[in-house]
Amino acid sequence: MKLPVVDFITLGCSKNLVDTENLMTKFKQAGFAVTHDAEKPKGKIVVVNTCGFIGDAKEESIEVILQQALRKQQKKIEKLFVMGCLSERYRNELIAEIPEVDAFYGKFDFDSILTDLQAEIGTPAICGARHITTPSHYAYIKIAEGCNRACSYCAIPLITGKYKSRSIEDIEQEVKDLVAQGVTEFQLIAQDLTYYGKDRYNTFALADLLVRLSDIPGVKWLRLHYAYPTQFPYDILPVIRERDNICKYLDIALQHSSDAMLQKMHRGITCADTEALLARIRKEVPGICLRTTLMVGHPGETDADFEDLMAFVGRQKFERMGAFMYSDEENTYANLHYTDDVPAETKQQRLDALMRLQQRISYNHNQTLVGTTQTVVIDRIEGEYYVGRTQFDSPDVDTECLLPLSEGDLTIGNYYEVLITKAEEFDFYGKLKAISEK
Q: Within a 10 A sphere around the Cβ of 121, how many other Cβ atoms?
């Protein structure tokens, strides 16, 4: 029996992408053909994995669901399933508002999509490797789910529940399996990397995990995303410093610098403590690239608070930075106890000013790499260039390195020694110096 093609659409963060990939793997093992974010979808079944973090993400998720519901009304698809954060949080409301969807699943019961389909059409399970939707040389590894923090603005704990670490052995085996598939670069992700292990081992275990993973033959790069500044596990720093295959890169969300804002946000840290933390990280891991995320427009943020934030960014000169506007999320502490009193126009102005400042900082930092030789992994070909990244740059969010196609016959997924010849705010340009081992 030929089974229908299933189109998967993923919205939101890389943690959602891992959930999609895991479900796609099970569909493939059951004999289905699968596609992901296809430009020309051809499946008779569509699965939408939604995001419910902030207002813009929720709006995008609703829009995509409605687009697919219209396709179903037009008989272009036969079944439509929705999973993920949005339906975890608003399942009953979505069922009432969008009856075209065959079924809604949340963050933890989405395997039932396949179970329910198998019960209906019958499919035998077959074996198969994990399906990844990224280029074949890198993958995201989710080491935990959930969050035990109590940030005032954040709905994630309401959606995902308490922190649950995967075992070191389970993560280690997943990385080994992916190495066997040809994956060489791994982005470690969680809602909060730094809490890893506390629930399972009664101690912070991220350093132990890094040692185990970096010992696996074939792991070229490991990169850390979404650390938390409070209770920071300093024992990871010598591991990052001393292990050549752990990227000198740390993504640590700080959100703000004003003590008044940090207190209102329930971040459990002061500006002085934050600056001491950053100084220690930079001292113990010379040359590390720090990426952070900041928020503007949280309830109660004054002009003085924002000026404090601008001055903080000016002092710290983060190599990579993202920012977003506060979104008033139902049943969060901020929603229940504060008034969303910063006008939308002011939020936008502050965001624009902050990103203009970061653009100058990023440009100046990138200039310091001109004339240096960096290892670059090639991700894709785009136009007249090979497009790759250094160890200081994560996929999709950071600076890319462009090499002219005239540099030679380079292989996607291979690592090359590249002389950086030019730098802009968000792009490097380079020329090939030598071929590095894959």
A: 10
